[in-house]
Specification:
With 148 residues, the protein is an alpha+beta fold. The protein has three helices and six strands.
Length: 148
């Protein structure tokens, strides 16, 4: 009687492995997260001209250039730039990081500014309110689906 069974060590699981699906590549790679830090790409130039004003304002905000040696997963994609040799620059964008605490303070500052501006607009509207032409300050949005 012939043994028609296939030996276990000759079996493979190639058919069971799912093929990886295509994913649209990122135009800017994301660095590996670091606890306590936020990352952002900062414009260092446009149309062949350096943008020193933008770079210096971002540095004053607390952003620091990221060293290429700190994120070797991005080094392969880096384009050489004479001004930022040891950093990660791709297409005139410099990878920077800042402490999350500083970025939360920055967000709170801009939220406060926006709130103050909205209060000023509201006060201006109420000052110019004429009883013959009432102004309604209704800031609500609704979403409806279908007919109706």
């Amino acid at each position: 009687m012939a043994d028609n069974r296939v030996k276990r060590d000759s079996e493979t699981r190639e058919k069971e492995v799912q093929q990886r699906s295509w994913v649209r590549p990122e135009s800017l790679p994301s660095p590996s997260p670091e606890p306590g830090y936020a990352f952002r790409w900062i414009r260092v130039g446009t149309r062949g001209e350096t943008d020193a004003k933008n770079v210096s304002s971002k540095f004053r905000e607390g952003w620091q250039p990221v060293k290429a040696s700190d994120h070797p997963e991005i080094i392969m994609m880096t384009v050489e730039n004479d001004q930022f040799k040891d950093n990660i620059v791709i297409g005139n964008l410099l990878l920077c990081k800042a402490p999350e605490e500083v970025m939360h303070q920055r967000a709170a500052f801009y939220n406060q500014q926006a709130s103050s501006q909205m209060t000023a607009v509201d006060n201006n509207l109420m000052r110019e309110n004429d009883p013959r032409m009432p102004i309604f300050n209704d800031r609500k949005s609704t979403v409806t689906f279908g007919e109706g």
